[in-house]
Write a structure and sequence with these properties.
With 170 residues, the chain is of the alpha+beta class. It has five helices and four strands. Helix content is 36%, strand content 18%.
């Protein structure tokens, strides 16, 4: 699959089969994350790989939009180290990591969905549940599994949101 095809055909998958994800696939997903661009090359990211069914269910119960984790064999929590880079750059860097992992999952034939984390509301839960130090900010949780649904591919281009040189109302 070429890059543009991967970008255009990737979609959020929330239904999974009961098939496990191999250690090799997990390594490939993490490797894709490590290849993300980073402000000042600080690479503030850390990953918590979650495969324990009880923990996945606890996450599903905690997050309002996390219900698919009850059927997922894997979640990857992307965290950023606030002691090495300021918060806004940390969010940008960890978002790039998250997108890389989503695209890698798609390439590997896996389904995934980006679950947002509001640090001001969720940090305490994540800190306690995953033993995160004070400087470790959870940015995203990625639910991953073998897809048990197919999404129709749509053209997502919106000409009305493209502005050349200056913003203009269309």
């Amino acid at each position: 699959m070429d890059t543009l095809q991967a970008i255009k055909t990737r979609s959020s998958i929330r239904k999974y089969t009961n098939e496990t994800i191999s250690n090799e696939q997990i390594h490939q997903l993490l490797e894709a994350g490590f290849c993300a661009p980073s402000a000042k090359n600080r690479r503030p990211w850390h990953f918590v790989v979650v495969q324990d069914k009880g923990t996945l269910i606890k996450l599903a119960d905690f997050g309002k939009y996390y219900k698919m984790l009850t059927d997922a064999p894997l979640a990857i929590i992307v965290c950023g180290d606030s002691s090495i880079i300021e918060y806004n750059y940390l969010l940008n860097d960890c978002s790039a990591v998250t997108q890389n992992i989503l695209l890698a999952a798609h390439e590997l034939g896996l389904g995934a969905v980006w679950l947002g984390i509001k640090p001001e509301m969720m940090k305490d839960f994540y800190a306690q549940e995953f033993n995160l130090p004070e400087n470790m900010i959870p940015v995203s949780c990625i639910s991953i599994g073998h897809p048990n649904e197919v999404k129709e591919q749509k053209d997502r281009f919106e000409d009305s949101k493209v502005h050349y040189e200056k913003f203009s109302a269309k």
